[in-house]
């Protein structure tokens, strides 16, 4: 609190990690970020903390925690801090999950009214992070995270012997969820509310693979 810094100039101040995380998680969700955050908090030495902090920066967002110098400059009113949502590669932290060839549909959705009408699949942040971004290159991910559309290829493999290729795009929504848009696919498939679909990113073909898993009959 600013009042504490103004009135208790010579007293060291600490912040409650639980309250910091409660605010921070609103824009930086995900289980892996949560785990790495608490590793930082439980560090037994400065060296261990700095190592865990570097790992945290590599988990998804980079440069979202100010250095001690930057923090003190902000408190003294001689500097400002702005969060930079710039990504770094994930592959040097731990390998991305591999899809099961017998059941590769890592992202499963039951279509909502919005999705069926708009021709857009809403992909939650956690699914986009674990099953899409971790296979993409750094430039492509940054493009999407920073608010630009990224053109993608989408293969409809509902009929395994006759897959069909579509063009679409992937973009971020307010709140850090994402959408995969492909109106032509939705129209040709006659997609409707409560249809169940499966999706995954195939790193070999650098494309989304889509399948209509269950069609609602009305």
Please describe what this structure looks like.
With 218 residues, this protein is an alpha+beta fold. The protein is built from nine helices and nine strands. It has a seven-stranded mixed sheet. Strands 1-2 form a two-stranded antiparallel ribbon. 19% of the residues are buried.
Can you describe this structure in just a few lines?
This protein has helices at residues 2-7, 17-24, 31-41, 46-59, 68-75, 113-118, 125-131, 138-145, 183-189; strands at 61-62, 86-87, 107-110, 120-123, 150-156, 164-172, 178-181, 196-202, 207-214.
Helix/strand order, N-terminal first = HHHHEHEEHEHHEEEHEE
Gyration radius, in Å? 21 Å
Based on CA inertia axes, which overall geometry fits?
elongated
Mean of all residue-level pLDDT scores:
80
Describe the main β-sheet briefly: 7 strands, mixed
Strand order of the largest sheet: 3-8-9-5-6-7-4
Number of helices: 9
Q: Which structural category do the helix and sheet elements fall into?
A: alpha+beta
Q: In what range is the share of β-strand residues?
A: 15-25%
Amount of helix: 25-40%
For the record, give the distance between the C-alpha atoms at the N and C termini, rounded to a whole number.
58 Å
Which spans have pLDDT < 50 for at least 5 consecutive residues?
none
| Quantity of strands, as a count | 9
What features would you highlight for this structure?
218 residues, alpha+beta, seven-stranded mixed sheet, two-stranded antiparallel sheet, 9 strands, 22% strand
